[in-house]
Design a protein that fits this description.
This protein has 610 residues and is α+β, with helices and mostly antiparallel strands. Strands 1, 2, 3, 4, 5, 6, 7, 8 and 9 form a 9-stranded mixed β-sheet that branches. A 5-stranded mixed β-sheet has the order 10-11-16-13-14, with helices on both faces.
């Protein structure tokens, strides 16, 4: 077999297969070039989802005739002035996008430099390049891509429907727009404007928040907490949603490294770890995190499409992200999403008829018998606060006790100024109705107390007070060298969680002890194998912590106030006060809300008072 040099057009087509896999990839490369050119407005027009036409116009610095010739050559770029692949400060730097796109489509580029009076154009069709010629064009650059992949029909067969391809382009534009709020983006499809983001004004933080609200929606804009942390040369910033505002997939999680949108398993794993004990499995928060690191500390050249990165100190980055998210969760952990209140109000209906419904020609329904018979208002209030005759036996109750600070005070002097207000009633033996200075609060007593008990149990772990229980017979597990080495390298961390493992022979380990709270029903072999797999993949011991939290969550559920228990006024108010003092009390261990609020002005609107 004779070795030969491939022709240029074939080399470009191979490169296009790596870089330009679909219209969205072409749009990404071209938009990134516009951003690198200093554009403040970028317009994108599509036909057939980008299959038949992609037209991108910007007001960037533009290119001269000589630059146009070089820009369409392979590995020609203006973004590596010192030939330094370690310190990369631009989005596009490979110099492959334009020649790759031109090799599989009909490409026309028109450009005019900012300080020049002449505009130029060049065209490439299936890899065949024309000479540069004068053109009529405003300052900036326009790139027209027609019939993408016409020169490679095999690639064309793998494209999805027009709607899917357009959706992928829109997703790319929105991700890029989040990182550059000072730039305007307009996306049109089939002649109709689908997305129009004007440049945001104000300082950087204001611009970022306004752009995120415009893209991720009003609900996110109203129900997020700020994420901010700095350690050494690494900075984390952004916004993330409260646990009660979540989605079924992680596609609403956006991570940026030095302004570059990336989809990295390590970074998404950090978000999952931070929300581990505040969101139920299968639910994901909405967030946009911006990571700023020195260019020399991150490798953005590990993937042809530059969608993945590799950090020099991945553990350092991971720890900082989790710490920043957990700090934000703790600060806003007592807040529930306002969307819950809107949904509640939406479920309420008004009845125009002043009379109660009745059944004509049928036996009237028997009214429900409530605990308090028909009586005067003052007498009813006194009976409500009086001890009930039917008390549940003490051994059937949880360990919840009223706070010593709660005093029995007259009804009109209840302290409604507290965040959760003062208890007014209990309905269906599970929901506490409280009055706050802003309106009405409805509390799920079981979910609320479950979080309180859970946080108390968690403090045992956070305080390194985990009781370790030795196994009567050590569990012998066969592992290979790399797995055993990973365990030995993390011995100190494993012992912190009450796990003691020793090498047993050359290819096995002996599990000597586990946390006592795990009991005897745990599958030790599966637990250790999961821990080892996680250490090898993510260099963490999140699995053991997650297993402990699941056990504590179950214990908290069984040890909290049960649904159906009647509480007196002191007990209800004591629960509200403890919620106000407890971390993450706005949601239970499974991510469900512990309370919802209804503002007085919204209630008045229901009754036509506003």
């Amino acid at each position: 077999m004779i070795i030969r040099q491939l022709p240029d057009h074939l080399i470009n087509q191979i490169a296009a297969g790596e870089v330009i896999e679909r219209p969205a990839a072409a749009v990404k490369e071209l938009v990134e070039n516009s951003i690198d050119a200093g554009a403040t407005q970028i317009d994108i027009d599509l036909r057939d989802g980008g299959k038949s036409l992609i037209l991108i116009r910007d007001n960037g610095c533009g290119m001269s005739a000589q630059d146009l010739k070089l820009a369409t050559q392979r590995h020609a770029t203006s973004k590596l002035p010192n030939d330094d692949l370690v310190n990369i400060n631009h989005l596009g730097f490979r110099g492959e996008a334009l020649p790759s796109i031109g090799s599989v489509s009909r490409l026309i580029i028109k450009s005019k430099p900012q300080n020049d009076n002449e505009a130029w154009q060049i065209s490439i069709e299936g890899g065949n390049k024309s000479d540069t010629t004068p053109a009529a064009h405003d300052k900036g650059t326009s790139i027209e891509v027609r019939d993408l992949f016409y020169a490679t029909p095999a690639r064309l067969k793998f494209l999805k429907s027009e709607r899917s391809e357009y959706g992928a382009v829109k997703d790319i534009i929105m991700r890029i727009a989040m990182a550059f709020p000072h730039i305007g983006f307009k996306l049109s499809h089939e002649g109709k404007v689908k997305l129009n983001l004007t440049p945001e004004i104000g300082d950087q933080e204001t611009q970022k928040k306004q752009r995120l609200s415009a893209i991720l929606g009003k609900d996110f804009g109203e129900n997020n907490f700020k994420v901010s942390a700095v350690r050494d040369d690494v900075a984390i910033s952004g916004y993330s949603s409260y646990p009660t505002l979540n989605r079924a997939t992680n596609q609403y999680q956006h991570v940026f490294v030095n302004g570059r949108p990336v989809k990295d398993r390590l970074l998404l794993g950090c978000i999952r770890a931070a929300y581990m004990d505040v969101l139920h499995h299968g639910r994901h928060p909405i967030c946009a995190l911006f990571i700023t690191v020195p260019a020399s500390h991150v490798d953005v050249n590990v993937h042809p499409a530059k969608s993945e990165v590799r950090f020099r100190e991945a553990g350092h980055i991971r720890g900082l992200i989790i710490t920043a998210l957990k700090a934000g969760l703790m600060e806003g952990g007592q807040i529930t999403s306002s969307t819950l209140s809107h949904q509640t109000l939406g479920k309420m209906t008004s009845h125009a008829s002043p009379s109660l419904p009745y059944s004509r020609g049928k036996t009237a329904a028997v009214p429900r018998q409530y605990a308090y018979p028909n009586q005067g208002l003052n007498e009813a209030v006194q009976n409500f606060y009086a001890p009930q005759e039917e008390e549940v036996k003490q051994d059937q109750l949880s360990d919840f006790q009223p706070s010593a600070r709660v005093e029995k005070i007259p009804n009109e002097e209840l302290h409604t100024a507290n965040i959760l207000g003062a208890a007014r009633a209990q309905i269906h033996e599970n929901y506490i109705v409280a009055q706050s200075h802003e309106g009405l609060v409805i509390v799920d007593q079981h979910a609320a107390h479950e979080r309180i008990v859970y946080e108390k149990l968690k403090n045992q772990i956070d305080g390194n007070n985990i009781v370790s229980q030795g196994l009567l017979v050590p569990e012998i597990i066969d592992l290979d060298d790399s797995q055993i080495n990973s365990i030995e390298d993390n011995q100190e961390l494993l012992q912190k969680f009450g796990v003691q493992i020793e090498r047993f022979g050359t290819d096995s380990v002996a599990v000597q002890s586990l946390p006592a709270i795990m009991g005897s029903k745990v599958n030790i072999k599966k637990l250790i194998q999961d821990i080892v797999d996680e250490i090898l993949e993510h260099d963490t011991t999140e699995k053991i912590q997650k297993s402990l939290f699941e056990i504590l969550s179950s214990a908290a559920c069984h040890g909290s106030i049960r649904s159906g228990r009647r509480l007196n006024a002191d007990e209800m108010n004591a629960l509200l006060r403890q919620m106000e003092e407890t971390t993450n009390s706005g949601h239970c261990n499974h991510g469900r809300p512990t309370y919802i609020t209804l503002k007085l002005e919204d209630i008045e609107k229901l009754f036509g008072r506003r």
